[in-house]
Amino acid sequence: MALDPASAESPATASRITMVLVNIRYAAQRINLYTFELEDGGILPPSEAGGHIGLHLPNGLNRQYSLIDCGPTPTSYTVGIKHDWESRGASRWIHEQLRVGARLEIDPPRNNFPLDERAGKSIFVAGGIGITPIRSMLTRLDQLGRAWELHYSCSTSQEMAFLRELSGRSNVYLYFSGGMNGRKLDLAAVVSAAPTQAHLYCCGPVRMIEAFEEACQGASLPAEQVHVEYFAPRFETATSGGFVVELAQSGKELPVPEGKTILQVLLDAGVDVAHSCDSGICGTCETRVLEGVPDHRDSILNDEERASNKMIMVCCSGSRSPKLVLDL
């Protein structure tokens, strides 16, 4: 998100920001909270509920993590990161190597999971680390005095971040799927009990989100009232190649061979394309399509946006037509 150019004192730009890790706090089993600030303690680009920042790690990995707080003039960013045994190396490096005082390049906040602040009631479903973007939404709705309801599921209470602050609230329902006496979340029941005009949000494991979307479709909820955010890619990256990408601004044509993504071909040709996750979950590489039919493989665009064929995530998607003309 871009800042108002008139805000001369603010360092907000579309480029990376060098920040310092000032605090690490324990949040739950295998989950820590990491707080970053500018060295001079200055104002950062604004963040909205549900937003995320990108961390550029010294080992070359770039990853997106949800902000647990939001605001128009933040002086720090805090993200919750789970040490995932099945990760591609980022969370392990962060938990084992990152220490207070470290300096990192950080991408300013983006938001692919925005909160509709006008809803009469908001209903949230969180699984595991999926609570992190939702936590900022709950705080924002409390500030606005809006009604909300949370259904939060983990294997055990030890894995549940923010348990102390959430426990005891009448609008919070906790589920622990592990153990003999575990209470499992019934997504169909949650969706069917939602008021007609409520907005529903879900973030968590892929299987949970898919089941949530299926329940919402079964209840015939309007698409504009259903919101999801994936932390892992839903689809395999397109690398079959066999098409051409035309850069509209120069007229240059770049063949995309088998085994390479559009992003890789663009970077190899020296085209400056913003990118981060390389798996279609952050939205950094979103590019306008002027001609052609993309083969969408991202986890961000909704069905209507996919059908319009106006945008593509070049890090993971391919082409169903012989040529794609991109606004580059």
TrEMBL record:
Organism: Novosphingobium flavum
A Pfam family matched in the record: Fer2
PANTHER family referenced in this protein's UniProt entry, alphabetically: CARNITINE MONOOXYGENASE REDUCTASE SUBUNIT, NADH OXIDOREDUCTASE HCR
UniProt domain FAD-binding FR-type: residue ranges: 14-116
Record key words, sorted: 2Fe-2S, Flavoprotein, Iron, Iron-sulfur, Metal-binding, Oxidoreductase
CDD domains for the chain: fer2, PDR_like
GO molecular function terms listed in the Swiss-Prot or TrEMBL record: 2 iron, 2 sulfur cluster binding; metal ion binding; oxidoreductase activity
Presence of the UniProt keyword Metal-binding in the record: yes
Name the UniProt record assigns to this protein: Oxidoreductase
PROSITE patterns per record: 2FE2S_FER_1 (PS00197), 2FE2S_FER_2 (PS51085), FAD_FR (PS51384)
Family matches, as InterPro entries: 2Fe-2S_ferredoxin-like_sf, 2Fe-2S_ferredoxin-type, 2Fe2S_fd_BS, Beta-grasp_dom_sf, FAD-bd_FR_type, FNR_nucleotide-bd, MRET, Riboflavin_synthase-like_b-brl
Residue span(s) of domain 2Fe-2S ferredoxin-type: 243-328
